[in-house]
């Protein structure tokens, strides 16, 4: 195996790993709006949501390729990212750029299969993410905002694909939830590095652990508050208490995730979602209560 950035060797397995398929779990956020809107069982809506999922899988993986090429030297100094196929030299930078551009175009093409609204959301995601990768990645606060916008746009995409109007509380809860995860991600990175060390990410020099703790604490409080407002609104509309009852497992899930954030384990949110059995159990209880609240209305 070589670490040369100009290696022309090709490994299909390495290319697949560079696309980070494990991180596609984040794209399941496109199901949030159809599910909470009570329309996920509608075949047309489900197909539209699946198209949104596929579009974001292509778009996000395309960004990962471009990002890994841009960050190749920093990633080689990172304790875990240095094993990714591009910094490890398993995928050449030329091939990575070609595959990345191809996936970005594929994401746009797939989104058009739903409607122009989804195309606009995916195009916005790709444009913002490219600007982030190429120009704004090293700007403190701005980088967190852009990471959060990626989560938010996934949630918006489900509504756009299925042509579902999104409530103000849904958008606010999704926004603050996205900020919570983004700040937690940076907090994990800061706690893994020595004070003042920005060799793995230059923007980290602009953060302190206490500042990031403040950001994710505020975001956690606001996501709980806005979700509670949505739940009580649903309670009034449905005339049943299930939406209000769902606040309990939702709050516990946020607090459980906060344990991982506080321990510095939230650098990869999808890893927590796939490994934390207690968090999975709380999510299942929450989903069950929300389904009862939404689908028995």
What's the layout of helices and strands?
Elements: H1 12-18, H2 32-36, H3 43-70, H4 72-76, H5 93-112, H6 116-136, H7 142-162, H8 168-192, H9 209-238, H10 242-245, H11 247-262, H12 269-275, H13 277-295
Helix pairs in contact: 3-5, 3-6, 3-7, 5-6, 6-7, 7-8, 8-9, 9-11, 11-13
Keywords:
70% helix, 0% strand, globular, Tetracycline Repressor, domain 2, mainly alpha, 2 domains, disordered N terminus, 297 residues
Report the order of strands and helices: HHHHHHHHHHHHH
Query: What is the C-alpha radius of gyration, as a whole number of Å?
Result: 20 Å
Question: Can you name the CATH architecture of the largest domain?
Answer: Orthogonal Bundle
| CATH first level of the largest domain | Mainly Alpha
Large-scale geometry: globular
| Multimeric organization | single chain
Q: Which regions are unreliable across 5 or more consecutive residues at pLDDT < 50?
A: 1-9
Query: What structural class is derived from the secondary structure elements?
Result: mainly alpha
Q: How far is the first residue's CA from the last residue's CA? A: 59 Å
Largest sheet: none
Amount of beta strand: under 5%
- Please give the count of helices: 13
Rounded mean pLDDT score: 85
